[in-house]
């Protein structure tokens, strides 16, 4: 493990939110960013994490950020060249990005979030509440004329979204090198990456994650258990499922809907992601069912890898979505939550010190190439995570190191305006993250979503094209 300085930062740092990700990233910042700790301020909404802040010698302020108070609270703490790291829930990313732009501060977020309550605001249509719409609201800021040369504002730079967006580029280059089907050097621009994906025959990309971490105390009846933000997971899990919609798909599902604005790279389903299951595969777990939870990377990757012909018609795009098997206790928690008509259990437990074993196998699965499927990602065990950094489990460390790397990249590129992970230097980010990711591997497989099903349920499959979403979805 390295403890080298990645960057020197003379400014002030404000961290909004200090839950599992905030507490996990702070020791990494103190280790790798050369800055005095008395220039760091945490602003959060609950006592949680106070002892960690005290242990690390960092100012901790209990003041929830709201639509009404965010300017009065944050403006005195931020000026030219300072940095705002948003690791909260229920705080509008775009509102904080706008404020940072006005005062000249840099910004990083691991998602794009609305103000609290927006996910369940039924005066908004499902389309208006979607990650697709939230992404468009961040891109609106990028489309404003003063974006050129504006302070860097990185959105969606945790593990997924974030790290996995960079994994896709590495996976494409590995596949090119190992099949000889295309040149294995990094393309210079967005269109080059899309051409590479098309040349490799990629029809589908899953963010395929299997978390096997187990605690010393099993989930109790009436309790929600997870390895990262329970509020965050339930919030996104109750949202309509969303997926980047590929050019090879025969037609959208009966419960699928298109958005009537923006890039048109994605669709949404009229059902919560936490009740939408998909077939997927990781090298260690083999085949499994994951939840198709809405995530920003499903949309941004599909948009990034889109090719259009001269007349503007769609030529190529992969289907992209999350396929998430959280830790087994979280699966039981989701089952119970759904049975209670999506009303949250009375108690919640975010697993950290009580984890006794398990890994987070998090990567991208690229499907459609003749040689088979290719998975590229990180296998990080709880023991490896504990050896590498305090206040982390395997899941949080994959997020926190990516947030650290995004922060370093922003400080190295301070005038890039609004950027998504695809706009950043994937090789630099992967170099920064690798020491904290456990085993980083690429592996081929012969899995398809038809595996065993032709034998068991032949009437249930479309054998003409295994990569149709109708084959991937568990109906
Ligand atoms: P958490 O639930 O453990 O912590 C959330 C923190 O936000 C808490 O400290 C809470 O007090 C604070 N908070 C809530 N409302 C606030 C307000 N109004 N003002 C200030 N602080 C407020 O969540 P977490 O696991 O640390 O996740 C933090 C964020 O990171 C979430 O948005 C989550 O979706 C995101 N996340 C992204 C990834 C990724 O890979 N991209 C992974 C995990 C989490």
TrEMBL record:
InterPro entries: Homospermid_syn-like_C (IPR023181), Sacchrp_dh-like_C (IPR032095), Sacchrp_dh_NADP-bd (IPR005097). It comes from the Bacteria. The keyword Transmembrane applies. Keywords: Membrane, Transmembrane, Transmembrane helix. Residues 158-441 form the Saccharopine dehydrogenase-like C-terminal domain. The chain crosses the membrane at residues 12-30. It holds the Pfam family Sacchrp_dh_NADP. Residues 14-149 form the Saccharopine dehydrogenase NADP binding domain. This is Homospermidine synthase. It comes from Caenispirillum salinarum AK4.
């Amino acid at each position: 493990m390295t403890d080298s300085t990645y960057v020197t930062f003379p400014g002030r740092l404000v961290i909004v939110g200090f839950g599992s990700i905030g507490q996990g990233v702070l020791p990494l910042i103190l280790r790798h960013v050369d800055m005095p700790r008395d220039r760091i301020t945490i602003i959060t909404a609950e006592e949680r994490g106070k002892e960690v802040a005290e242990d690390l010698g960092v100012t901790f302020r209990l003041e929830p950020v709201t639509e009404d108070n965010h300017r009065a609270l944050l403006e005195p703490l931020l000026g030219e060249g300072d940095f705002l790291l948003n690791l909260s829930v229920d705080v509008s990313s775009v509102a904080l990005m706008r404020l940072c732009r006005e005062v000249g501060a840099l910004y990083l977020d691991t998602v794009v979030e609305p103000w609290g309550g927006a996910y369940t605001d039924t005066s908004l249509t499902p389309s208006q509440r979607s990650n697709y719409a939230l992404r468009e609201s961040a891109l609106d800021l990028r489309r404003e004329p003063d974006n050129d040369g504006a302070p860097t504002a990185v959105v969606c730079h945790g593990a997924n979204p974030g790290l996995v967006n960079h994994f896709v580029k590495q996976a494409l280059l590995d596949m090119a090198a190992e099949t000889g089907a295309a040149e294995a050097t990094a393309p210079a621009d967005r269109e080059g990456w899309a051409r590479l994906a098309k040349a490799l025959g990629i029809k589908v990309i899953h963010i395929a994650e299997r978390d096997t971490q187990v605690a010393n105390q099993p989930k109790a009846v009436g309790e929600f258990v997870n390895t990262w933000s329970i509020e965050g997971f339930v919030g996104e899990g109750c949202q309509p499922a969303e997926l980047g919609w590929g050019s090879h798909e025969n037609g959208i599902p009966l419960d699928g809907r298109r958005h009537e604005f923006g890039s048109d790279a994605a669709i949404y389903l009229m059902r919560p992601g936490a009740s939408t299951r998909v077939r997927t595969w990781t090298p260690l777990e083999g085949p499994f069912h994951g939840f198709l939870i809405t995530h920003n990377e499903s949309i941004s990757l599909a948009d990034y890898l889109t090719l259009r012909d001269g007349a503007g018609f769609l030529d190529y795009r992969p289907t992209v979505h999350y396929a998430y098997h959280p830790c087994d206790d979280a699966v039981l928690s989701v089952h119970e939550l759904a049975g209670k008509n999506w009303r949250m259990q009375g108690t919640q437990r975010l697993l950290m010190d009580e984890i006794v074993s398990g890994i987070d196998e998090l990567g991208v699965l690229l499907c459609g190439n003749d040689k088979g499927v290719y998975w590229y990602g990180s296998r990080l065990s709880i023991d490896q995570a504990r050896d590498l950094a305090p206040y982390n489990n395997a899941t949080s460390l994959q997020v926190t190191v990516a947030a650290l790397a995004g922060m370093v990249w922003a400080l190295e590129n301070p005038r890039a305006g609004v950027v998504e992970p695809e706009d950043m230097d994937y090789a630099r980010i992967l170099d920064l993250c690798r020491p904290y990711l456990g085993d980083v591997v690429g592996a081929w497989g012969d899995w398809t979503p038809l595996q065993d099903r032709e034998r068991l349920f032949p009437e249930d499959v479309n054998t003409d094209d295994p990569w149709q979403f109708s084959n991937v979805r568990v109906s």
